[in-house]
Structure formats: C-alpha cells, structure tokens
Amino acid sequence: MIMPEADGLSLLERLNTSEFETMPATIVISAVGNEKMVKLACDLGARDYLIKPFNKDILYKRVQDMFGQRVIATRRTPAPVRSRTLDEKITAVFLSIGIPAHIKGYHFLREAIKMVVKQPDLINSITKKLYPGIAEPFATSPSKVERAIRHAIEVAWSRGKIENINNFLGYNIYTSKDKPTNGEFIALMADRLLMDRSA
User: Residue 109 in contact with residue 186, Cβ under 8 Å?
Assistant: First the structure.
C-alpha cells in the first residue's frame, strides 16, 4: 500500500477513473488490517486484501483463484454489473458481521468456507481433512486453525452484529446467546453462498 509518490488507495482511485476498458484485477498487500481500510480498498475495486506478514504460497493461491475463475472486473457502469467473486462475497459478509481482517481466524475461516463451497463433503471431515487442508499452506497446525476460527466466530458474537448474520442467512437462527460451533458456522455460510450461486 505504500509506494513512491502515491499510496495504494490513490492508485485504486486512479484505476477507477482511468480509461481502461476493463478494470485491472488488484490484490492489496498491507501491514494495516483495520476494518475501515479493508472496506475502503474493497469498495475501490480490490479483489482481495492480504495482511503482512503472510506465506508467499497464500499469495500464489489467491492469484490462481482469481484468474482460474476467469472473472473479469469491468468498469463501473449502470449496466451490466459484474458478479462478485467468492472471495469478495465472503469479505463483504465478514465486514458486515464484525470479523476483523487482522486476526488469523479471518483468513482461516475464509479458506474453510471457500473449500466447503467447492467441496461440500469436506464439512463431514472437519478435523481429518478441512483443518489440515487449511493448515498446510499457512504453515501452521490444524489445532491452531481450529482455535483461530473459534476466536473469529467469538469476536463476531461479542460485537453484537447477530442481526447481520441472520440477514445474510435469510432467517433468524441465532441470538446473542446461541453461538454456533465452527462446523455449523462454516456449513451455514457455505450453504448460503452455494444458494446464491445457483440462484
């Protein structure tokens, strides 16, 4: 985000007002992880936001995901509006429910939801396949992945944005006293995103 003569947000603003036929795909890499900065970058068209330090394999995987989907970000015009990528949808949900981007659980939980969206059967093998599958590229252990995801969910509940969670899911399933397990939360989020995809 810090560059000679300009910062990353200024660059994103310039990209939005320039003469490109298609909006270049961008990934923001920053040491700053506060929610306002992440939201601003995403609003300006960033497709992903990585917080330093991170494993270089994660960046490689993000680029693969971005271009593997062959999604082209078009200039903002009244119509047509491009579909948001899976990463963008998850990022938007996390912002609305109060999971901050600077905690490890944010990234682990996002990977878990993405993996279950792509392979729904993984939800039946959380400890044997899902957590180890997340842990490997992040160079950590499955137990640390599990704890970090638990912490991310608890942060969301402690911020009291339960209504936003229920709004995303489409029905009133939770109250402030009803904290889901990791598996329940991942499954519900993935199911909702799959429903949006097929709609």
Answer: yes
**Which H or E run includes 15?**
helix 8-17
Structural element, H or E, at residue 63? helix 56-68
- CATH tag for 1-83 (out of 3.30.1360.40, 1.10.150.120, 3.10.20.30, 3.40.50.2300): 3.40.50.2300
- CATH tag, 84-199: 1.10.10.10
Sign of CA dihedral 164, 166, 172, 173: negative
* Chain region(s) in the chain for CATH 3.40.50.2300: 1-83
One digit per residue, the tens of pLDDT, for the chain of length 199 reads 444 444 666 777 777 666 666 667 777 777 666 667 777 777 777 777 777 666 667 777 777 776 665 444 444 444 444 457 888 889 888 888 888 888 999 999 999 999 999 999 999 999 999 999 999 999 999 999 999 999 999 998 888 777 887 787 777 766 667 788 999 999 988 988 888 776 5
Helical H runs in 73-198? Answer: 86-97, 104-118, 131-135, 142-158, 162-169, 182-198
| Overall pTM > 0.70 | no
